[in-house]
């Protein structure tokens, strides 16, 4: 919100696209770390990071993603990806 406001004040906001230079760069810069954290959470559930691709399935994929990573607990004890982060 702050970066979008700065984009509007400086004239770097593109109304057709709906994003400005600063807010767009921030979104791109935060995308990779967000994906890496989600992959780490899939590993906590003892599933491959390739499960990130479930989000490409319209509607159902987003629901599955939120349920798996947001509501279900990780596997107890070590799994094929190593010990739980709390044990490390």
Provide structural commentary.
The protein is mainly alpha-helical. It has one domain. It contains three helices and two strands; from the N terminus they run αββαα. It has a two-stranded antiparallel ribbon. A hairpin with a 4-residue loop joins β1 and β2. The longest helix is centred in the middle third of the chain and has 24 residues.
Secondary structure elements and pairings:
Elements: H1 2-10, E1 13-14, E2 19-20, H2 21-44, H3 60-71
Antiparallel strand pairs: 1-2
Keywords for this entry:
single chain; 88 residues; mainly alpha; 2 strands
Low-confidence stretches: none
Q: What integer is the average pLDDT? A: 87
Number of strands: 2
Radius of gyration: 18 Å
Distance between the termini: 37 Å
Assembly type of the chains comes to single chain
Largest sheet: 2 strands, antiparallel
Enumerate the strands of the largest sheet in spatial order, edge to edge or round the barrel: 1-2
Structural shape:
elongated
Number of helices: 3
Order of helices and strands: HEEHH
The residue fraction in helices comes out at 40-55%
How would you classify the helix and strand content by structural class? mainly alpha
How many discrete domains? 1
| Proportion in β-strands | under 5%
């Amino acid at each position: 919100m702050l970066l979008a406001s700065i984009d509007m004040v400086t004239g770097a906001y593109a109304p057709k696209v709906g994003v400005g230079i600063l807010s767009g760069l921030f979104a791109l810069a935060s995308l990779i770390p967000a994906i890496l954290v989600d992959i780490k959470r899939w590993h906590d559930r003892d599933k491959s990071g390739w499960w990130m691709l479930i989000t490409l399935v319209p509607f159902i994929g987003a629901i599955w993603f939120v349920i798996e990573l947001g509501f279900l607990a990780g596997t107890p004890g070590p799994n094929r990806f190593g010990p739980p982060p709390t044990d490390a």
